[in-house]
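Two proteins were folded this term; both appear here.
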Amino acid sequence: MKLKIILRKTIILVAILFIIIGIHNGDIRDIVNKATRICYECIGIG
């Protein structure tokens, strides 16, 4: 039971670390640009 809690917390910390690294590398701009293009294509503008 204690191992599950430690494993869960470790996975959450690693996920947070990857999110911070992605934001620092500027990946958030790429995601927003792709989402905008997909939305425009769906409604027929792009």
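Next, the second protein.
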Amino acid sequence: MYTSMTSAKLTRVITCFFFALLLVLMIFASPILNWFFGFARDNTIKTILITFYLCCPAAWCALVCIFKLLTNIINEKVFVVKNVLYMRVLSWCCAFVAVACLVAGFFYVPFFIFSLGAAFMMLILRVLKNVMAAATEIKDENELTI
């Protein structure tokens, strides 16, 4: 039977897949870009590589936060302060990527689209973080009530 725990476990497996995918992309980014953009100028490939590697720490951090958040959910620790922290860090990772892509957009225009997407994702995560923080406060108050 499909439950929210099954979904959380599946999402955690998918997160592990993205850990592996990011590692492979970090190792093979240059050959992949040279194959895909073989006709492009060297400056374009350099801009993409620099931006990609600049955003990699934020991606690793985001994946770790997602994994820990899902682990807490699987362990039935949903409305806890740590989860609010993980969502806050996730939103800042998106903000970092948005700024990095915004700057890179001046050198390779399609990065403006990535910047907009990352900024929108940051906005969604901030709203969800605020909802989670409010729910956590309500839960904590209810636990103190006799």
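The chain is about 85% helix and 0% strand. Residues 29 and 35 are 10 Å apart (CA to CA). These notes refer to the second protein only.
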